[in-house]
Specification:
By secondary structure, the chain is mostly beta strands. It has a single domain, classed as Methylamine Dehydrogenase, Chain H (7 Propeller), CATH 2.130.10. It contains 6 helices and 35 strands. The strands form 8 sheets. Strands 2, 30, 31, 32, 33 and 34 form a 6-stranded antiparallel β-sheet that branches. The longest helix is centred in the N-terminal third of the chain and has 10 residues. The chain starts with 20 loop residues before the first strand and ends with a strand.
Amino acid sequence: MYNNNAYKLGFENQLEELQNQELEIQGKIPSWLSGSYVLNGSGQNEFKTAKYNHWFDGLAMLKKFEIRDGKILYSNRFIRSKDYLKNTASDTISYTTFGTNSSSFPFYMWEKVLGMAGVMLSDNTSVTIHKFGEDYVALTELDKAMKFDIQDLSTLGLYDFQDNFRSGFSTAHPHYDFKRNKIYNLGIKLGLPSNYIIYEIDPKTKARKILKKIKTIKASYSHSFAVTQDYVILSEYSFKINPIHLLFSTKTVSEALYFDDKNPIKFHVIAKDSGEIIRTFESKPTFTFHHVNAYQEGGDIVLDIASGPDRKIFTDLNLDKIRDPDCFKKKIVTNFERFRLSLNDGKIQSEIMVSDAFEFPNINYKTQNGLKYNYTYGSSFSEKSDLLYWDALIKVDLTSQKTIKWSEENCFVGEPFFIPKPDSELEDEGIVISVVLDSTKKQSFLLVLDAKGFTEIARMYVSHVIPYSFHGQFFPDL
């Protein structure tokens, strides 16, 4: 029987740090699977004298599943950021974050002034994991990256970009171009006017180079963007930030955001080689956290996102709300939506590809990112669920528009991550892994699904609850 309160376990503090705990394998993992799956997300949201307001604010904790020689070892460790060291020493909130002001007034007003100048004091990098050259880094929505040791998850300090670039904010989802050997990202510098900044990172020189600046009066909140073989697509959502409200009030970044239902979403198509804006498209007001993929097809660009009609998915991630089961009954917050952008005549069309709720999209990134693809994986709801928090994994066949789901009673899923079988020519040959909270056992486990049939082949329980994570990466042994 479903327990409507059970999902809340994943939002509680987890202060225990484990090192190389060997996990019992229930089932069988593929013999070819060897490497480390590392996730990032909040590990602590509450302190003795203060608590974070938004799910995005919590202190960053890394989790690693090391898979090698038929064994799986689990480790977890907080990133030793300035935020972590000061917060844990004083048991309060020392720096202003996305949705929470620091506990010191008027200090956080000065932090806002610095933020408008592109200087953010917080270094709590709690959202994603990437690899810049030979360095493993944790990222958030600030223009900072924190290095860590892949072996023991120890913190190695901020990544030293070899440039004078400063934007204040960057997305947590940079893209790697395997053909050009470049990393692309989107920065936002708030001001009057504000600027979107598309930039490249050279993994060898560690330098950022500006590809394109786009001025705007009302900057949009941007968590991700999309690329094709030849273009960067900047999605300028209808979810806006007012710099004046941010600077001259006690509002946090999240509180200064508002949904402008009279302002259409804009898609700016920017050439990777020249930085030229090829075309700008407009469509109905829309909000999204995550782009699924994009690709060129004839004279069109196909752009897939997990879209919502308003900002509700964002505001409902305030911790007080997300812990209230009555707030989330029978909600579908984001759907899989496909936009077709005609570069020839500027026309735009859109359609909902599947009727199910869809979030945390994942694809066969190395072979299909920026290219036409057939399969994507995401988080969704089971048929029995009446809550917001995701309790099912979903596979979408984009050719047939059919779906397959995995779910289990009182289990709540994290982001699915596709790992391809080495040397396979089939897009969906491999496995999908996800960290799942078993609220009945009050433990989390790593779930392994066969990607083709989307059936369980193995699970490995950890001795404690892993707080819900945001995003992870698998780093195969070379």
